[in-house]
Amino acid sequence: MDHPAEHLPSTSDLETLLRTPGFGSSRVVHDIGAVASRLHTLGGVVGVTVAGPVVMNAVGAHATPAWIGGPLRIGRDEIVVRLNPSRLSSVLLTDPAANVPPTLRLFDSDGNTSHAIYLTDDSDRSAFDSLVAGRPGFDGIASGPASSATDGFDSDTGDRVRAAFAIHAGDPGPGRIVPEHTGPDDQVGMFDSILADGGLDRRRALTGGQIRSAVRVDTRRVVAALEHAALLGMSVTVATSARGCMQMRQGRLDGARGHRGQVVLASGRSRVMVNVNHVSECWVTSSQGAWGPTAAVELYDRDDRCCLVLTSTGPVARTVYDAWEQLTGDLAG
C-alpha cells in the first residue's frame, strides 16, 4: 500500500497516526467521493469537525454529503457535511486498540484532519468493515477519482458558484422549495467562498470594503447575542468550516454559555465549542436567502480563516427570519 506519509509535513495528523502503534495497518483510501457516498450506511455515529478555535460535534447518522458548487443541504437530525474535494487528500479507516472506537478520518491536502467519524453502539459495523476491507463491488471504492462523485459540478475554487439553492431540513414537506439564487451574493456563494480557501479571499474583501453592508463587531457582543438567541430558542444555521469540509446544522439553539473565553452552543444532539481567545475578527454580513437579504455572523481565527458561520437558511417561518434579522441588526448597530 502506498501511504502518502512521506510526502506530507512531519507534523501532519496522518503521518502521526500511521506511526502510532495499532494504526500502521489502517487503510488509506484516496477516493474521497466513493467513501463519502457511503457515510450514511454507517448508521449512528459521532461526527466531529475541528476548525482552529472551533470544534463541532454531532450524534446521529450522516446524510449524503453535498459538494462545493452544488445545492445547499442543511439538516436538523442528520450530520451534514459540505465537501471541497480539491482540498482533501485521503481517508484513513482505523480499528485499533479496544479503548479507541473504530474511526474514519478525512484529511486535507496537508494531511491534517478535516472531519472525524467515531462509531458507536448504534453504528452498522458491517458497513464499516466493508470499507476497511475494500471489498470488491462495494459501490465503487477505489473505482475512480473523487471528482466523479461531484455529479458534474465544477470544483474549480476560483469559479463563481452558479448552482441552485435547495435546503433539505429533515422533512420540510411537499412543495417547500427554496427559490433559486444564482448570483455571487447568495448564501451558496457565501458558504462556498469560505469552503474554497478557508475564507482567505473573503476576509480580504471584507477588510478592503468590497463586501457591501459588512460590519465588524466585537467578539463579546457576538457572545452576548448568541446567549440572547438561546434564551429565545431561536432557530439558527451553524456551519463550522475546516479545510475541505464544512459541517452544518439548522435547528433550535437550545443553549449558549460563555465563560472565561470559552463559548458552548447546544442545538439538539450537536455541540459547538468556541475558544474566543483565538478568534481575531467577527463580521456581520448579508447574502440573498429564501426570504431576501439575510444576515450572517462570520468568525475568523488568527490565521485569517473563517472558522464559524451563523445565519438563517431555508424555508423557515417569516417570524423566525424577522427575529434573526432583528438580532443581527442590533448586533451590527
Structural notes for this entry:
With 333 residues, the chain is α+β, with helices and mostly antiparallel strands. The chain has 2 domains: 4-150, Heme iron utilization protein-like fold (3-Layer(aba) Sandwich), CATH 3.40.1570.10; 187-332, 3-Layer(aba) Sandwich (Heme iron utilization protein-like fold), CATH 3.40.1570.10. It is 20% helix and 34% strand. The chain contains 7 helices and 17 strands. It has helices spanning 13-18, 32-36, 125-133, 187-197, 200-207, 219-232, 318-332, and strands at 27-29, 43-51, 54-60, 66-67, 80-83, 88-94, 103-108, 113-123, 215-217, 235-242, 245-252, 255-259, 262-267, 270-275, 279-289, 292-301, 306-311. The strands form 2 sheets. It has a 9-stranded antiparallel sheet. Strands 4-5-11-10-17-16-15-9 form an 8-stranded mixed sheet. A hairpin with a 2-residue loop joins strand 15 (279-289) and strand 16. The longest helix is centred in the C-terminal third of the chain and has 15 residues, at 318-332. InterPro entries: Heme_Transport_Util_sf (IPR053733), HemS/ChuX_dom (IPR007845).
Tell me the β content.
25-35%
Q: How far is the first residue's CA from the last residue's CA?
A: 57 Å
CATH topological fold name of the largest domain: Heme iron utilization protein-like fold
Which structural category fits the helices and strands?
alpha+beta
In the CATH scheme, the class of the largest domain would be: Alpha Beta
Contiguous helical run count: 7
- Estimate nothing, just give the exact number of structural domains: 2
Element-by-element helix/strand order: HEHEEEEEEEHHHEHEEEEEEEEH
The dominant shape is globular
Quote the average pLDDT: 83
CATH homologous superfamily placement of the largest domain: HemS/ChuS/ChuX like domains
Tell how many strands the DSSP assignment holds.
17
Second rung of CATH, namely the architecture of the largest domain: 3-Layer(aba) Sandwich
